[in-house]
């Protein structure tokens, strides 16, 4: 087929030359120079526009992808730092709730000294939390019997009934603890935005007696999500999808952000297009506790570089076209005469392509063109004569390449060394496996022979099955029936083993036991090999072509080698029914001596 394709390509090339002569003859009747170069300039202009648009599209997409990847890595790192700080706040709250119960402050305590001591211990405990970290601005304690703390200190104590009046109470009403979204509180220095963490207080008897609120400075959280970058727009959402705080431009529509609440991926990016505002690139990262950090980047900021590149390319290209148009229009007249001579000769081109009458008085590029064309036409006959020999060499190289893919010589030496190590270590099973594998590779290598006696092929199969029996034990059984007169015949090396391997790996997958039967018999002038198993059978689409060649390498190799050696009607047939196993039939000619294959190969190629 490749020979036919090359011949067809040659005749197609010859036809193009003949057709081109008629086309150029038509062009001679018009103003060749101006029309040709004008059309060429128009074509280049259109091509430039298309190229600029493609350049813009590809670079903008690449910039968006690179931006998303960079922002994704940055958000993941910021999320890790944020989670550490948030977890520390939660741990502080938990430790404080336990210590408050231990202190056990009671405003009705009759012993004034003891009551004041416990009150002071409670204030010191809560104040120490605010002093230990700059993130916590103040702490609110809600209890049934409030007391008056230091007015200049970071602690505020309120009546427990006041909790129900807070606008954040529904967030913790049905929970023992919860993060409270950003709100504004009054401090000694004026209003301050904070994010709260509230925790209900229970005594050792499990009775609810108060609530603890840690007010975390929003600026500290914002510094965490800002990181080392400036001018970014980022938003922080808790596990329920509430916006806790944000930095930068927050003009993104809330209804569009709501779409991010349903995403299941821990991280990702999307191109968000809205009618109310310009497009944006959204990149998000989720923490293990499902807090989500989102960065919003205006799309126009990403594609500015692409637009500039497209404009520069368009400007330079148009300038080059204008300059090139005038230059080529001027020098086109210098090409008119030799082109006309070439067109005149091509219109008289003989069928066999000889070019004895080509002009020989040109010493410039056109002279080289004429001489090269003459030599090309003289070599066509030589190339046609060499196609047959080249086709034969190519087929032989393909067969050698397929054979070489299975036989890595160095593995045999490695197995021999491993066998000695196994014997020294007393690993009898491993030694037996390595010994069997050594026999397999010795037969597989066969001193580079592509054809081996059927007796050796049977030994190769038996070694493989014995190795499998070491792993399967009594659960794997096999029989090999062979016509004794067939043992001395020849077969392409490693023909049967891939099908047996397929039966064990795929046919017996998920099975507790399996049986394999190998039958070899002579049929007229041919020899038939049958491998039958009682496995799960082939999938319904096993013989459908796949998009990618994944798996089945050994079977494909055998089929391709048989096709390369013998061609139809010889080959492989596989039949199966679901749950009833698979039957593989390999039909080959009887080969008495190795030279038969070479003779058959030569006759086949000569016939084609």
TrEMBL record:
Which Gene Ontology molecular function entries are recorded, alphabetically?
kinase activity
Q: Which residues form the Histidine kinase/HSP90-like ATPase domain?
A: 495-590
Q: What is this protein called?
A: histidine kinase
Which Pfam families does the UniProt record give? HATPase_c, His_kinase
Q: Which enzyme type, at the first EC level?
A: transferase
Task: List each coiled-coil range.
Answer: 370-400
Taxonomically, the superkingdom here is Bacteria
Domain spans labelled Signal transduction histidine kinase internal region: 397-476
Q: What is its EC number?
A: 2.7.13.3
User: Subcellular location, in the record's words?
Assistant: Cell membrane
**Quick one: where is this thing mainly located?**
membrane
- What keywords appear on the UniProt entry? ATP-binding, Cell membrane, Coiled coil, Kinase, Membrane, Nucleotide-binding, Phosphoprotein, Transferase, Transmembrane, Transmembrane helix, Two-component regulatory system
Asked if the Swiss-Prot or TrEMBL record annotates the protein with the keyword Kinase, the reply is: yes
According to the record, the segments passing through the membrane are 32-56, 309-331
Q: Which reaction does it catalyse?
A: ATP + protein L-histidine = ADP + protein N-phospho-L-histidine
Report how it sits in the membrane: Multi-pass membrane protein
Q: Which InterPro entries match?
A: Bact_2-comp_sensor_kinase, HATPase_C_sf, HATPase_dom, Sig_transdc_His_kin-like_C, Sig_transdc_His_kin_internal
Q: Record's PANTHER family?
A: SENSOR HISTIDINE KINASE YPDA, SENSOR PROTEIN KINASE HPTS
